[in-house]
Amino acid sequence: MADILFLMAVVLFAVLFAAAASVALIRYKPTWSKKRVIRSAALVLPVLILALCCASFLRISLMSAEQCGVDACGMGILAGLVLTTLAVVLVVPGLIGARLAYRRFGSDDDPW
């Protein structure tokens, strides 16, 4: 039960983060099209997660076998793969949150 609640909290955070990014982009980049604002706002959190995963992969791959210990490197790689999957999945709730925020705070004259 706690795992489902944690997953729901992560998805809710992704929606709210994308909505906040969408509102910020609407305010600071008013010349951007609707599609560009929504896509950019939805991809902020997944790109940050992917950047952290890439840094983790790079750090682990540069470690020697003595530094890894028994299975520490394998667990780090697995955690990075799980977070990469989560980042890809969080694109959809991000798109939903950004779209809802654009509907509320965006301009109505944009045909796209």
UniProtKB/TrEMBL annotation:
Superkingdom of the source species: Bacteria
Protein source organism: Sphingomonas sinipercae
Keywords: Membrane, Transmembrane, Transmembrane helix
Transmembrane residue ranges: 6-28, 40-62, 74-96
Record's protein name: Uncharacterized protein
